Amino acid sequence: MPLLLQVGASAASHELPSGYGVSLLQSLLALALVCILAWVVLRFFAARGVGVGLGRRVKVLERVPLDARRWIYLVELGDRVLVLGVGDGASPTLLKDLPKDALPEPAQKRGFLEALEARRSEGAKRSFEAERSVELQRSVEAPRSVETEAREEPPRPEP
Protein backbone atom coordinates (compact mmCIF):
# COMPACT_ATOMS: atom_id res chain seq x y z
CA MET A 1 0.00 0.00 0.00
CA PRO A 2 2.75 2.53 0.72
CA LEU A 3 4.08 1.89 -2.79
CA LEU A 4 0.75 2.95 -4.32
CA LEU A 5 0.75 6.14 -2.30
CA GLN A 6 4.28 6.93 -3.40
CA VAL A 7 3.36 6.36 -7.04
CA GLY A 8 0.31 8.57 -6.57
CA ALA A 9 2.41 11.26 -4.95
CA SER A 10 4.98 11.18 -7.74
CA ALA A 11 2.22 11.33 -10.34
CA ALA A 12 0.74 14.37 -8.65
CA SER A 13 4.08 16.16 -8.86
CA HIS A 14 4.17 15.71 -12.66
CA GLU A 15 1.69 17.76 -14.63
CA LEU A 16 -0.53 15.99 -17.09
CA PRO A 17 -0.45 17.32 -20.65
CA SER A 18 -3.18 19.80 -21.38
CA GLY A 19 -4.24 22.10 -24.14
CA TYR A 20 -6.39 22.09 -27.24
CA GLY A 21 -4.50 19.24 -28.91
CA VAL A 22 -5.05 16.88 -25.99
CA SER A 23 -8.73 17.85 -25.75
CA LEU A 24 -9.18 17.28 -29.47
CA LEU A 25 -7.50 13.88 -29.27
CA GLN A 26 -9.68 12.88 -26.31
CA SER A 27 -12.82 13.97 -28.18
CA LEU A 28 -11.86 12.04 -31.31
CA LEU A 29 -11.08 8.91 -29.31
CA ALA A 30 -14.42 9.17 -27.48
CA LEU A 31 -16.25 9.63 -30.80
CA ALA A 32 -14.50 6.62 -32.31
CA LEU A 33 -15.38 4.52 -29.27
CA VAL A 34 -19.06 5.53 -29.47
CA CYS A 35 -19.19 4.75 -33.21
CA ILE A 36 -17.60 1.33 -32.71
CA LEU A 37 -19.97 0.57 -29.85
CA ALA A 38 -23.01 1.61 -31.94
CA TRP A 39 -21.85 -0.54 -34.85
CA VAL A 40 -21.38 -3.58 -32.60
CA VAL A 41 -24.82 -3.13 -30.99
CA LEU A 42 -26.54 -2.69 -34.37
CA ARG A 43 -24.82 -5.78 -35.79
CA PHE A 44 -25.79 -7.77 -32.70
CA PHE A 45 -29.47 -6.86 -32.96
CA ALA A 46 -29.57 -7.19 -36.76
CA ALA A 47 -28.19 -10.73 -36.52
CA ARG A 48 -31.11 -11.61 -34.25
CA GLY A 49 -33.69 -10.01 -36.54
CA VAL A 50 -34.67 -7.23 -34.15
CA GLY A 51 -36.33 -4.34 -35.97
CA VAL A 52 -36.25 -6.03 -39.38
CA GLY A 53 -39.49 -6.79 -41.14
CA LEU A 54 -42.14 -6.93 -38.47
CA GLY A 55 -44.57 -8.38 -41.00
CA ARG A 56 -43.84 -11.93 -42.06
CA ARG A 57 -46.00 -11.98 -45.19
CA VAL A 58 -44.87 -8.73 -46.80
CA LYS A 59 -41.27 -8.24 -47.99
CA VAL A 60 -39.78 -5.36 -49.93
CA LEU A 61 -37.58 -7.07 -52.49
CA GLU A 62 -36.14 -4.02 -54.16
CA ARG A 63 -36.40 -0.24 -54.27
CA VAL A 64 -35.22 1.74 -57.28
CA PRO A 65 -35.20 5.56 -57.30
CA LEU A 66 -36.46 7.18 -60.47
CA ASP A 67 -35.59 10.68 -59.33
CA ALA A 68 -35.39 12.51 -56.00
CA ARG A 69 -39.12 12.14 -55.27
CA ARG A 70 -40.28 8.94 -57.02
CA TRP A 71 -39.44 5.26 -56.59
CA ILE A 72 -40.45 1.86 -57.87
CA TYR A 73 -40.84 -0.90 -55.31
CA LEU A 74 -40.95 -4.67 -55.80
CA VAL A 75 -43.04 -6.05 -52.94
CA GLU A 76 -43.53 -9.73 -52.27
CA LEU A 77 -46.96 -10.51 -50.84
CA GLY A 78 -47.45 -14.24 -50.40
CA ASP A 79 -47.11 -15.85 -53.83
CA ARG A 80 -47.53 -12.54 -55.68
CA VAL A 81 -45.07 -9.78 -56.52
CA LEU A 82 -46.41 -6.25 -56.77
CA VAL A 83 -44.71 -3.50 -58.71
CA LEU A 84 -45.60 -0.24 -56.98
CA GLY A 85 -44.96 3.32 -58.04
CA VAL A 86 -44.46 5.63 -55.07
CA GLY A 87 -44.20 9.39 -55.23
CA ASP A 88 -43.63 12.10 -52.69
CA GLY A 89 -46.96 13.07 -51.18
CA ALA A 90 -49.01 10.62 -53.25
CA SER A 91 -50.44 7.24 -52.43
CA PRO A 92 -48.72 4.17 -53.93
CA THR A 93 -49.91 3.11 -57.37
CA LEU A 94 -50.10 -0.52 -58.43
CA LEU A 95 -48.22 -0.76 -61.71
CA LYS A 96 -48.18 -4.53 -62.15
CA ASP A 97 -49.29 -7.64 -60.27
CA LEU A 98 -47.08 -10.63 -61.13
CA PRO A 99 -46.90 -14.21 -59.97
CA LYS A 100 -43.78 -14.89 -57.92
CA ASP A 101 -42.45 -17.31 -60.54
CA ALA A 102 -42.57 -14.63 -63.28
CA LEU A 103 -39.61 -12.71 -61.85
CA PRO A 104 -36.15 -13.70 -63.08
CA GLU A 105 -33.40 -14.18 -60.54
CA PRO A 106 -31.51 -10.94 -59.90
CA ALA A 107 -28.04 -10.65 -61.38
CA GLN A 108 -25.25 -11.11 -58.89
CA LYS A 109 -23.73 -7.85 -57.82
CA ARG A 110 -20.00 -7.61 -57.93
CA GLY A 111 -18.31 -6.45 -54.81
CA PHE A 112 -15.69 -3.73 -54.79
CA LEU A 113 -12.79 -6.20 -54.84
CA GLU A 114 -14.23 -8.15 -57.78
CA ALA A 115 -14.76 -4.93 -59.73
CA LEU A 116 -11.23 -3.81 -58.91
CA GLU A 117 -9.76 -7.14 -60.02
CA ALA A 118 -11.77 -7.04 -63.26
CA ARG A 119 -10.58 -3.50 -63.91
CA ARG A 120 -7.01 -4.49 -63.13
CA SER A 121 -7.14 -7.49 -65.50
CA GLU A 122 -8.68 -5.31 -68.25
CA GLY A 123 -5.87 -2.81 -67.77
CA ALA A 124 -3.27 -5.56 -67.92
CA LYS A 125 -4.88 -6.93 -71.09
CA ARG A 126 -4.91 -3.48 -72.68
CA SER A 127 -1.27 -2.82 -71.74
CA PHE A 128 -0.29 -6.26 -73.15
CA GLU A 129 -2.12 -5.49 -76.40
CA ALA A 130 -0.48 -2.06 -76.58
CA GLU A 131 2.99 -3.55 -76.02
CA ARG A 132 2.29 -6.20 -78.64
CA SER A 133 1.16 -3.63 -81.21
CA VAL A 134 4.29 -1.54 -80.54
CA GLU A 135 6.46 -4.64 -81.00
CA LEU A 136 4.68 -5.50 -84.24
CA GLN A 137 5.03 -1.95 -85.48
CA ARG A 138 8.76 -1.94 -84.67
CA SER A 139 9.26 -5.30 -86.40
CA VAL A 140 7.51 -3.97 -89.51
CA GLU A 141 9.40 -0.67 -89.46
CA ALA A 142 12.82 -2.18 -88.69
CA PRO A 143 13.36 -3.82 -92.12
CA ARG A 144 12.24 -0.65 -93.87
CA SER A 145 14.78 1.43 -92.02
CA VAL A 146 17.57 -1.02 -92.96
CA GLU A 147 16.48 -0.95 -96.60
CA THR A 148 16.27 2.82 -96.50
CA GLU A 149 19.75 3.07 -95.03
CA ALA A 150 21.07 0.75 -97.74
CA ARG A 151 19.51 2.90 -100.45
CA GLU A 152 20.70 6.15 -98.97
CA GLU A 153 24.28 4.97 -98.75
CA PRO A 154 26.26 7.29 -101.02
CA PRO A 155 27.74 5.71 -104.10
CA ARG A 156 31.41 4.88 -103.82
CA PRO A 157 33.67 6.60 -106.27
CA GLU A 158 35.34 4.30 -108.69
CA PRO A 159 39.12 4.35 -108.67
Task: Summarize this structure as a short list of keywords or feature phrases.
159 residues; alpha+beta; four-stranded antiparallel beta sheet; 51% helix; flat
SSE order and pairing:
Blueprint: H1 2-13, H2 20-47, E1 58-65, E2 70-77, E3 80-87, E4 93-99, H3 112-152
Antiparallel strand pairs: 1-2, 2-3, 3-4
Would you write up a description of this structure?
With 159 residues, the chain is of the alpha+beta class. Helix content is 51%, strand content 19%. The protein has 3 helices and 4 strands. A 4-stranded antiparallel beta sheet has the order 1-2-3-4, with no helix packed on it. A hairpin with a 5-residue loop joins strand 3 and strand 4 (93-99). The chain is flat, with a radius of gyration of 36 Å. 1% of the residues are buried.
Quick structural overview:
The protein has 159 residues and is of the alpha+beta class. 51% of the residues lie in helices and 19% in strands.
Low-confidence stretches: none
What general outline do the C-alpha atoms trace? flat
Main sheet: strand order: 1-2-3-4
Distance between the termini: 116 Å
